[in-house]
Amino acid sequence: MPENHIKIAPETVAYADTETRKLVVEFAIPGAPTDTIDVKILGDSIHLTAPARDIEYVAALALAWPVKPDKAEAIYEHGLLRIEVPFKDPMEDAVKVTIKTAVAETKPAVIASPGTPPAVGRGSSKPVAAEPALAP
Predict the structure, then answer these.
(1) Edge to edge, what strands does the sheet with 73-77 contain?
(2) Is residue 24 part of a domain?
(3) Is 44 contained in some domain?
(4) Are the CB atoms for 56 and 7 separated by under 8 Å?
(5) CA distance 21 to 19
(6) CA angle 59, 17, 50 (to 5 degrees)
(7) What's the structural domain count of the chain?
């Protein structure tokens, strides 16, 4: 590639096609020969380089949702590169965990002193309206 190429970020549009459950990304790269376009897709990003005449289109797009790069399809027509890649199901690589039964735990009993009202568990030491107040 000649030294006088300037790098330009192409006009880019990316959206989720909810009907096909795919990410669609379009790069406007007019004048780039098809055989010089280099697109690399990872599970979380798309990278593009495409030399055209005296410029080089360069783009890196971080994805908010994982995709299946090995299922991507790309079409280049009239200076527009359209890439479609299916979204990855977030549970696709999930591992089912076997749950074992735990041994029953014993909890110590709380014994109240004579003359002490039982704990009600309401977080206050004030008597409820129906409870008699204890004399000191």
Answers:
(1) 11-17, 22-28, 80-86, 73-77
(2) yes
(3) yes
(4) yes
(5) 6
(6) 20
(7) 1
Q: Which position has the token pair 């110590």?
A: 108
Distance from C-alpha of 72 to C-alpha of 24, rounded to nearest angstrom: 10
What's the first-to-final CA gap in the chain, in angstroms? Answer: 94
Domain of 59, in residue numbers: 6-86
CA distances from 37 to 22, 40, 109 (A): 22, 10, 74
Q: Tell me the pTM.
A: 0.67
Nearest to 14 by CA among 52, 62, 51, 56: 62
Measured between alpha carbons, how far is 111 from 64 in angstroms, rounded to an integer? 56
Other beta carbons within 10 angstroms of residue 41's beta carbon come to: 22
Give pLDDT tens digits for 9-64: 999 999 999 999 999 999 999 999 999 999 999 999 999 999 998 999 999 999 99
